[in-house]
Structure formats: structure tokens, C-alpha cells
Design goal:
Oligomer: single chain
Radius of gyration: 21 Å
Order of helices and strands: HHEHEHHEHEHEHHEHEHEHHH
Structural class: alpha/beta
Number of helices: 14
Largest sheet: 8 strands, parallel, barrel
Distance between the termini: 59 Å
């Protein structure tokens, strides 16, 4: 049976619990229809279920005298969505990132959209733009941290270290979903890796069924392990979470579509769900219709959609994914590829023209450091009575 658990809210007024937990149901954009599943309206979205792991959590800090509603969130704050951040801000200082993320999955219905980040700077930029949930991409981490292609060369230590740094840049207001690849070994290694991700303040992670000599999910020639080995990975991860009594969310990923086809993917994901995985990923959809069909077949279990532009799957927009009923959407290379293009352009300009093109943009060292927490650091120094950075401009 699937691992089900309820995240509840304590309140002095049991009749209202201090909050209106009826989230806004977003409307479906015009033209967003999918013939295979007749997904044309948001009524096809599965109702959220209490399928989250970990111990039952009482959140007394969430009581709100004004009865503020908890709205849906797309994981990003802008001028029109500050109410989302304000509503969830009661969680920020009293709960860890995993518990906040678990709450979002249970008590909001809108799509959580996450940009792919791979280092401190890309994460800081995503936070500055207003994203509340980030995704640490394994492909981007391999390229950025190691300068290597995503061929399983990133070690557990590489990934834990990167996740720890990113997750704790602003752990009071941001949550991180992190790639855990295959778990980096057998059940014992997987259990230790999960414990390290928990200590690193990671909110959720995905573990997959590729062989240990894995590759990026959007390269050809992928091979997956047997069902038995895959499920042993899920059991090891689930057991480690339960033993730690943690709220970190377990996302089961299958890459079997390329080798064995869609039906095998559904069988594997259903088995992972029944073992207690909180969310599923079917990597490498071959069509939009296939993606919409998977959501319906696995409902009400939440599914995550991985978008890799110019990869092996069709491009699905945020509006289309929302209409299909996906709960989380990650854009794995939304940071790494634009960074590659911009850096390459500047270096080419320097190589052939003798200038970088930065002059006149208005972006200098201070602007860069402001994104990286300069003002917060100066405030810490000021409050402590420090003298070293006084008068810095």
C-alpha cells in the first residue's frame, strides 16, 4: 500500500483552523487540448491527496488571526503573486524546507515551476527573480562543477556538496529539489545518501532506474536495471526517510521509456508509488498525448514533468502542463544552456575584438555581489558592530 500521511494544521479555532485551504483552481489556457486524453479543462486535474511521507506534523505556528487564505503557487513570486509568498511565509521561520515543500504539495493545486540551477550564482539569480522552489540538475552540476558530460561521473560527494551549498543559500525562503541519480550504489549507499541529503536541507530528491553507468536522460542508448533492483532503491530511500522521521519528499523516476516503452514505465511507477514514493517522473515522453495519458493513469498521485529544450521529448509549456494536471515542472537546463551561450559570446568577442561587451550594460562587481547577498552580509557585520566594511559603496 502507498505510504500516506497527512500534514495537519493546529489552531485555536478548530472550525476554521485559521486558514481557508480551498486553493484557487487555475483556468486552462485557450487551445490547450490533448487528443489522447481529452484534456481541455482544469477539471481533469486530479485532486490533491495526502500522499506525503514522514511523521504527522502539527503546525501550530500557522495560526493566523486574519484568516489569510493559502493560495496556489507556481513556485515563483512576482508583483502579482506576493500573496502566495506572504501566505506561506508563516512556515518560513519555523519549519525546514522539506516540511514547507511537503505542505505546498498537499495544500496547493497549482503547478510548482522550478528553474534548473547548478551552482551558487545560478541559484542566487533564480531566487532574485522570485522562484521559491529550485531544481539542482545533475547534468548542469556535472558540467559546471566537474567540466564533464553527464555520464555518471559525478560522485555522491560531488552532488551532496553542491546540494548542501545551494539549499542553504536561503533555506528560510527557498526549497531545493535535487537530482540523486541512481543513488550511487546499493541499498546501504542509497540510505546513507538520503541521510546526507536530509542533513543538507534538501526538500525533495529523485532517484532513477538507470544502470550505475548512467547518462543524461536525453541521450540515446539508455539502459535500466531490473524491476527488482529499481524497487530495492525505492525501498532503501523510503526506509531511510522513515527512520530519520524526515519530511524530505521521495520522487521516483523511471527512464524505461526509451528501452522498454510506456507501459513498462507505468508498471514501474505504480510499484514505486505503492512502496511510498511521494511523486513520480516518467522521463523522456515521446509525445504530449503520452504525457497527458500518464497523468490520468497515475492520478491522483502527483507527477513531475522534466523539460529539456532541444532534447528527446516535445516541448510542453507551463500552461499545457498545468492543463494536463502535472504538479511539478522542472526546466533542467534553463540556467546552464543560456549561461553557456552568453559566456561563449562574451569570450568570442574578447578573443576577436578585444572587448567583452560588458561595458555600458550597467552591471559591474557590486551588482553581481548584490545578487550574491552583499547587502545581507553587510547588515550582519553592522549589527555585530563590525568595522571592516563600514562605508562600502
Amino acid at each position: 500500500m502507498a505510504h500516506t500521511d497527512t500534514l495537519t494544521i493546529a489552531s485555536e479555532n478548530p472550525s476554521t483552523a485559521g486558514f481557508d485551504l480551498k486553493p484557487r483552481i487555475p483556468t486552462t489556457p485557450a487551445g490547450a487540448t490533448f487528443s489522447a486524453s481529452n484534456v481541455s479543462e482544469s477539471k481533469s486535474r486530479p485532486e490533491p491527496q495526502d500522499v506525503l511521507s514522514g511523521p504527522k506534523t502539527q503546525i501550530s505556528a500557522m495560526s493566523n488571526e486574519a484568516g489569510t487564505a493559502i493560495p496556489s503557487t507556481n513556485g515563483c513570486q512576482d508583483a502579482k503573486s506576493t500573496s502566495t509568498t506572504n501566505a506561506v511565509s508563516g512556515l518560513a521561520h519555523s519549519l525546514n524546507p522539506a516540511t514547507r515543500f511537503k505542505y505546498k504539495l498537499q495544500h496547493t493545486r497549482d503547478l510548482i515551476v522550478c528553474p534548473g540551477v547548478y551552482d551558487g550564482l545560478s541559484a542566487r539569480i533564480a531566487q532574485a527573480v522570485g522562484f521559491e522552489v529550485l531544481y539542482m540538475t545533475g547534468a548542469g552540476s556535472s558540467a559546471s562543477v566537474l567540466g564533464m558530460a553527464d555520464l555518471g561521473v559525478a560522485s555522491r560527494n560531488d552532488m551532496v556538496s553542491n546540494a548542501d551549498m545551494i539549499a542553504n543559500l536561503d533555506s528560510h525562503h527557498s526549497e531545493l529539489i535535487a537530482d540523486m541519480d541512481t543513488g550511487y550504489g546499493g541499498p546501504v549507499t542509497i540510505a546513507q545518501t538520503v541521510k546526507q541529503y536530509i542533513r543538507a536541507n534538501v526538500a525533495a530528491f529523485h532517484i532513477e532506474d538507470q544502470v550505475l553507468t548512467k547518462r543524461c536522460g536525453h541521450l540515446s542508448g539508455k539502459k535500466v536495471v531490473s524491476m527488482d533492483i529499481y524497487l530495492s532503491r525505492i525501498r532503501a530511500a523510503r526506509s531511510a526517510i522513515d527512520t530519520a522521521q524526515a519530511d524530505i519528499q521521495l520522487i521516483a523516476r523511471t527512464d524505461a521509456n526509451q528501452q522498454h516503452g510506456y507501459d513498462e514505465c507505468i508498471v514501474r511507477l505504480k510499484a514505486a508509488r505503492d512502496l511510498g514514493a511521494n511523486v513520480g517522473i516518467l522521463e523522456g515522453f515521446k509525445s504530449k498525448e503520452e504525457a497527458a495519458k500518464a497523468v490520468q493513469e497515475l492520478a491522483p498521485w502527483p507527477l513531475l514533468l522534466n523539460i529539456v529544450e532541444n532534447g528527446h521529448s516535445p516541448l510542453i509549456t507551463v500552461d499545457e502542463a498545468r492543463a494536463m494536471g502535472f504538479r511539478i515542472m522542472i526546466f533542467s537546463l534553463a540556467g546552464a544552456i543560456p549561461a553557456y551561450m552568453a559566456i561563449k559570446s562574451a569570450y568570442q568577442k574578447l578573443r576577436y575584438e578585444g572587448v567583452t561587451g560588458i561595458q555600458g550594460t550597467g552591471v559591474g562587481p557590486k551588482e553581481l555581489f548584490d545578487v550574491c547577498g552583499l547587502q545581507e552580509a553587510l547588515e550582519v557585520d553592522r549589527r555585530a558592530g563590525g568595522e571592516d566594511f563600514k562605508g562600502m559603496t
